[in-house]
Amino acid sequence: GTNGTDGARGATGAAGTNGTDGARGATGAAGTNGTDGARGATGAAGTNGTDGARGATGAAGTNGTDGARGTTGADGARGATGAAGTNGTDGARGATGAAGTNGTDGARGATGAAGTNGIDGARGATGAAGTNGTDGARGATGAAGTNGTDGARGATGAAGTNGIDGARGATGAAGTNGTDGARGATGAAGTNGIDGARGATGAAGTNGTDGARGA
Question: pTM of the prediction?
Answer without folding.
Answer: 0.17
